Amino acid sequence: MTLVDSEAEVGSGAAPTATLLSRALAVEHPDLSPDDVAVRFRQATPPVIGRVHRGRFLLDLRGVFSPDDLAVTFA
What we know:
The chain has one helix spanning about 35-40, and strands spanning about 1-10, 20-25, 50-55, 55-60. It is mainly β. The protein has one domain (about 1-10, about 20-65): Aspartate Aminotransferase, domain 1, CATH 3.90.1150.180.
């Protein structure tokens, strides 16, 4: 995992193109594609939603308020 600069989207309603500067964890795996990594995170308990951007799976940290928010269990 690598900490990278990111841009979080505000939303698609009133400000569809507005972004906020953020940081993200870039998760890369030597044997899994970014899409496969995303599937594994979505299937975790609780599910974790990230995004694939420029060939990496990113977990944006803008919505993480506690380290406990990052604790997941993989099947």
